[in-house]
Design brief:
This protein starts with a strand and ends in a 10-residue tail after the last helix. It has a single domain, classed as Rossmann fold, CATH 3.40.50. The strands form two sheets. It has a seven-stranded parallel sheet, sandwiched between helices. It has a three-stranded antiparallel sheet with strand order 1-10-9. It has eight helices and ten strands. Helix 2 packs parallel to helix 5. The protein is α/β, with parallel strands linked by helices.
Amino acid sequence: MFKLNSNPNKRKIYAQIQNAKNIVNCPENAYTGKGVTIAFLDTGICKIKDFENRILCFKDLINLNHNTYDDNGHGTHVSGIACSNGLLKGVAPKANIVMLKVLNESGNGNASDVLSGIQWVLNNHHKYNIKIVNLSIGTSSTMTNDPLVDAVEHLWDKGIVVVTAAGNNGPNPCSISSPGTSKKVITVGSSDDEIYNKIYSGRGPTRECIIKPDILAPGSNITSCRCENGEYKKLSGTSMSTPIVSGAVALLLEKEPSLSPDDVKYMLKLSSTSLNLPPNRQGWGLLNIEKLLNMEAVYVRNKK
């Protein structure tokens, strides 16, 4: 845990989060995600200054509490990576936030609660202009017809970009968590799990022989928001990689709001930087936000 009591600490912490943004070439002050809403399905969120007044809605599907809170801290940390506008600026610091609490104080949950959260998004995405769903969660699944996969693909088909974690069950093959096994959604792995000798990022292929993950972003020792104002902490995992990509998508959709989920996914593919790793380790490669935002819009529906 980091507490900002002195200027040296501020410089240190700023450098830590800035390093992750530099790795994915995140430009400053070009786009901010303004007007785009990201829905997070997680442990909740705390109303700290970093989020200003951009938490549009909080829905508690675990304890049915009407107050905005996070009794674990994971959801606040994840949201901060994408959307913080405090000392530590997230990738999309002006994006709006909807939080669906689907995990309990231990960070655990039931698939039924996640499915309820997805249904809530389907019912309310027009009201809150939800363009992106961030799922820094996952579960092992041996089911042929996985209801979580079906649910996220329904979101995708309704025009909502779904960004989900590859999971932390690597490095063995076929270790992608559900719903990241979906062929449609954007599945994010960690680009730096080997660097810190914590080889955790899920690897493909899926049971259907689909190459996964789709893209990589930094996931180790990522500094982000804590539930107390002015305090920050480090966490590691593909849960941290995922909101970096969600934030990048928010920037892209601010620039090109007419893009469909398939368009977004294809542009991420074209703009990524290969790390010369096996496909089922890196997918297309490392997220490159600057290249993504400098591209002309590509509409998959117009491709022959």
